[in-house]
Amino acid sequence: MLDQLREPAFTKRGLSRTSRVPRRSPITWVRGGGLSTLLFLAPLLFVFGAFSWYPIVRTVVMSLQHTNLVQPATWVGFANFKAVWHDPLFPVAVKNTLYFAGLALVFGYPIPLIAAVLMSEVRKRRGIYSALAYLPVVIPPVVAVLLWKFFYDASSTGVFNTVLGWIHLGPYPWLQSQQWAMPSLVLESTWANAGATVIIYLAALTGVQTELYEAASVDGAGILRKVWHVTLPQLRGILLVTLILQIIGTAQVFLEPYLFTSGGPANATLTVLLLIYNYAFGNSLGGDYGKATALSLMLAVFLAIFSLIYLRATRSWSTR
Amino acid sequence: MTDGEGGSGIISPAEWRKPSIRFTLTALQWLLLVSLVVVGLGPIVWLAKSAITPTLDTIIHPVSLFPHGAAWSNLREAWSTVHVGLYFWNTVVIALGYWAAQIIVATTGGFALSVLRPRYAALINGLLLGTLFIPGVVLLVPLYIEIVQVPLVHTSLIDSYWAIWLPAGASAFNVVLMRRFFDNLPREIFEAARIDGAGPFRLFWSIVLPMSKPILGVVSIFAVLASWKDFLWPLLVLTNPNEQPLSVRLPSIESQTSLGVFLAAMFIACLVPIAGFLVFQRSFLRGGGLGGAIKG
């Protein structure tokens, strides 16, 4: 209580000794610590100004221009957006990205939650469980993808096909068929990322008040009902956050389609980000930066609107 | 996170004493452990085994438990003939600069915004939080063009490690994390230091930084890991193969290398992250939970 009373006065004075001087001239500003504050902020302002805030503004400008780095940029209005919109690959990329995000939710959303709830009830050596779950997260993604690419070998002597052959399944074509390629990508991506979510859930599970479980037990609830009526409602805030973070993340999937299949076979794994990459860097004759920035803006605006609607729609539910 | 009796409390002691529940739960947990070993550890153990297995053996018997004959030469050949050693040190140098940039920006910026609190702090905080909501893809193309043609100074940072280090500093997540940690340090200590005559630099170096070791550790670990995992950005800005890190080189050398040597190269690329994870496990797992805490 005392701290709270004292804190505003302290922060208003900051670290200065002379800020009681009513008028603010440059000299009192320097004496008051204004200059050293600015010195401390200098790295942040420089790095964010140059490599975050400026490029964000630049994206908007570039999406309205025709730029190829050689000739001076010309204003073209919304022509880039129109060109992207009418690109026959655009609906393919959108559909594939939605498919990837949807499959990733089906595979990747319930598994970490079930694993975390089970792990939270482990009585001995719980550390081994979380370490094993987190291990794939620290593997460099490029290594993970190239390793899985070998596992996905479509011949009957491929690693996965051999293992599935033991139980008389397959051989499956994995990355080589239009139908199987995307699920294969999602499977690897889930393997690579699920551990991080498990750790987030485990941290959140320690925050659930044990009194609630005791009260539920007294009321005669069994284990499954306690999970359903106590654990999940208590986790709903974090569950909503991980859901939206996963959707935002999977909407920007690049590495898996780029390294596994380069968007193939027959564009079956061409995602929005891969299309952006192809616009900007895929053409050796020079990139179409206008179309690339236009598409990335469209994706960003879509994600922003989606997040806003999502947060608005779930707000009452998540804070109840 | 206490071990032993209790768990997180979903199962009450009375329920735990029932043999049926105890048996089911133990079975489920063993099942989970076995699948975690197979799924989490399996691919890495397979990679380690195959890194020292002759190429032909890996191709003919990809899933045998033990190799028929060892080929330690895979590792040696990868390190020197395929130049994985060079790429490894490139990766290390890139990671060190990446780490330094993130730490410098996050600590100084967090200190100014949390402790010094100028009048315009609210504006900067707002801009930082704004960038948290911008997907990274928006920055890709303009950032690349900015590196190719640096404004004002009119040079190119292509093939310079600064092209990776400088943008790495712009992590709003780190600054917000650091600021929140500084916010929770006791203000009385700052005031006492001020009365004793410590200026802002002394306060930063001798008081705030030493008190922030836990968060510095977490940010450092995740900075090095993020740098080690980075692929697309180094691929774009480093065009000279002799300067590229492992993650960029691995896909390119795949076609020119025999399988055994290539798998050995991939294993070498995993060593540092895995060793770091084993040593700093606690920070990893604690820091992993932070991702949810800050956004929740």
Characterise the protein shown here.
The complex is a heterodimer of chains A (320) and B (296). Chain A is an all-alpha fold and 320 residues long. Chain A has 2 domains: 74 residues, no CATH class; 241 residues, MetI-like (MetI-like fold). Chain A contains 15 helices and 2 strands. Chain A has a two-stranded antiparallel sheet with strand order 1-2. Chain B is mainly α and 296 residues long. Chain B folds into 2 domains: 64 residues, no CATH class; 174 residues, Orthogonal Bundle (MetI-like fold), CATH 1.10.3720. Chain B is built from 16 helices and no strands. In chain B, α2 packs across α15, α5 packs parallel to α8 and α5 runs antiparallel to α12. Chain B is flat, with a radius of gyration of 24 Å. The N terminus and C terminus of chain B are likely disordered. At the A-B interface, α1, α3, α6, α7 and α8 of A face α2, α5, α6, α7 and α8 of B.
Order of helices and strands of chain A: HHHEEHHHHHHHHHHHH
Structural class of chain A: mainly alpha
Shape of chain B: flat
Count of domains of chain B: 2
